[in-house]
C-alpha cells in the first residue's frame, strides 16, 4: 500500500478510475451484443471493487481472428465468405465455444459470445475458458457439398488456433454434429492422427457423448426445477412460451411437456404459433424434421399463427424461454413482458435495460451464463471421454450434468441473496471471482 493512503482512499481512487473507463468504453447509440455483455460485467465488477488492472486482464478478448474463406461453388464459381474466431480468456483452461453459421454474424457478436463463454464455464466450474466462432452465411442457400467445403475451409484457415488443449469448438446456431465431424476430420487429416477431442458435439460414432443433443435444454430444465422450488410454484401447472424452435428450444419444449407443463406458444424463423390448450412438442418436432421449419404448422395442428412473432415474448405465461438470438427483449418491449420466470436458453436475449425493467417487475430471470450452461458442461464431459478413450452411459452423463447444474444454481442463488442483487449480477460476481483468482495465480508471462 502506498505511504499515507488508506484502504478507503485506494478503493475510492479505483472506483473513480473505473467510472472513467465505463464512460469512455463502447459509447454508442445502438449498443452491440458485446457492449451489452460489458455492461453486465461492469455491474458485477464494480460491486466487487476490482482494480482497473484486474479488469484489464479479464474483460476484453485476448485474440480476435478474421479470415476470408474462398469456396468453390457447385457451378464452378468461387464465393468468398468471412469467418471469425475469438478467444476471450483462457486462465481456467483451453478456449471452448461453438461456431455459428448465420448471415447476421459479425465480430461484435462473436466477441460477446466468447465473453459469455468465459463466465459460463466459470459459473459451472469446468476447467475451460471462453471462445466462439462464426461464418457470415445463410447455410440454407448452400448445397451439402458447398456446406462441407465451407466448413473444412473455415477449420483449415485457422487450424493453428485449434487443438484439444488450445481451443475446442462445438455446434451453435445452424451448425450440427455433421459439421463437427468435418471439422474433426480436417484437423485429424492435417495432423495424421485420430484426434476427436479437438471438437465436441460430434456424432456418437466419432466420439460424441451420450446426452449431448439435449444437454443445453436439459441444463435449463434443471435450473427451472430449482427456480420453481425456490419460488414455491407447481411445475406441472406452468404455462410456457418458447421463442426459437431449434435444437435447444425444441428439446426445452419436449422436456418441460414431459414434466406436465403446458406449452402454449412456440416460434422459429417462419412464424409463431399459439394454443391456450397447449401444443404437442412431438408433433412440432416431427413437422420441423419433415419441412425444415415450423412453416404451415397451423395447417396440421390446432394452433393459431400469430401475426407478429415478437408478440410471443409478451404472452401472459408463467415461463418464457428465449432460445433464439441476442437482444430479443429490450427497453422497448420489456414493459409488456408478463412472464413470471425467464429462462435464457439463448445467449444474451435480454439487454441490460430490459433487465432493469423486469427486475422492478420482480421477474425471476435465470441468466444465460447459468441457464444454458448444460451444453458446454456435457461438451466438457465429451472432451474428457475423448481424452480417456472411455465412454459413459447416458445415465452417468445425466447424473453429472444434474449435479453440476444444481450446484451452480445454488451458488448463484446464495450469491444473489447474500448480496441482494439479481441472479445475473450474482452469476457474474461468482464467475468473475473465479476467473480473476485464476488469472492472479497464473501471473503474467514476461
Overview of the structural elements:
- The structure is a single chain.
- The strands form 2 sheets. This protein has a 7-stranded mixed beta sheet with strand order 9-8-7-6-10-11-12, sandwiched between helices. Strands 1-2-4-3-5 form a 5-stranded mixed beta sheet.
- The longest helix is centred in the last third of the chain and has 26 residues, at 394-419.
- The radius of gyration is 22 Å and the shape is globular.
- The chain contains 14 helices and 12 strands.
- Among the domains are: 63-195, Leucine Dehydrogenase, chain A, domain 1 (Rossmann fold), CATH 3.40.50.10860; 215-371, Rossmann fold.
- The chain has 446 residues and is of the alpha/beta class.
- The model is unreliable at 1-15 and 17-28 (pLDDT under 50).
